[in-house]
Design goal:
(R,S)-4-hydroxy-2-oxoglutarate aldolase activity; KDPG/KHG_AS_2; six-stranded parallel β-sheet; TIM Barrel; EC 4.1.2.14; 9 strands; about 200 residues; EC 4.1.3.16
């Protein structure tokens, strides 16, 4: 099975799409695609967001679309039925990790402590999401655990912005960063899609 980092193919930003309708989801994904991005994450917090994920897959079949906020077997099944290419979770438990190892898709399990990292590694995962990154020690935490887990890479998410994302990407154990700042709510409400494209392009550059 491919790793998430290999699917992202050098893309260092995993932009997060938070929507409750298909139209906005597709429009945001198209704006991100216009910046040269090929991988996005859709947060699954409602039935409508799952439909948005499916709509993005249909409208932009070349894009790799992941499902975020997977917290249990029920939300995992929704993500798989919607056609998610890989799975992202905000946290880990023994039961959830067991389900994730059997889902047939690449996964970035969410961790926030050293104990979480060890638990995820015990289930075979070597690419993890630090969440919420800023509140879990940020770049300093990731730098500190780099020596402990030399074969483990991270995609920190939560509290990352235009002002601090370089602090994370400068670390050897960070393969990408996740963020919502590239698709601000007011931009979506006002349908200012070019602003999303420009924000994504800044990180890509």
């Amino acid at each position: 099975m491919d790793s998430v980092s290999s699917l992202m193919d050098g893309q260092v930003l995993l932009p997060i799409i938070q929507v409750d309708n298909e139209h906005d989801g597709v429009a945001i994904a198209k704006a991100m695609h216009a910046a040269g991005l090929k991988t996005v994450e859709v947060v699954l917090r409602s039935e409508q967001s799952a439909k948005a994920l499916s709509a993005i897959k249909a409208e932009l079949p070349e894009m790799i679309v992941s499902a975020g906020t997977i917290v249990d077997e029920a939300s995992l099944n929704v993500a798989l039925e919607a056609g998610a290419d890989f799975i992202v979770t905000p946290a880990v438990t023994e039961k959830l990790l067991s389900k994730l190892t059997q889902c047939g898709k690449p996964v970035i399990p969410g961790v926030s402590t050293v104990a979480d990292i060890v638990l995820a590694r015990e289930h075979g995962f070597r690419e993890l999401k630090l969440f919420p990154a800023a509140l879990s020690g940020g770049a300093g935490f990731l730098k500190a655990v780099g020596g402990l887990f030399k074969d483990t890479k991270f995609c920190p998410t939560g509290g990352i912005s235009q002002d601090n994302y370089q602090d994370y990407l400068s670390l050897n154990n960070v393969f990408a960063i996740g963020g919502t700042w590239v698709a601000k709510t007011d931009w979506v409400v006002n349908q200012e899609w070019q602003k999303i494209t420009d924000a994504c392009a800044k990180v890509k550059a």
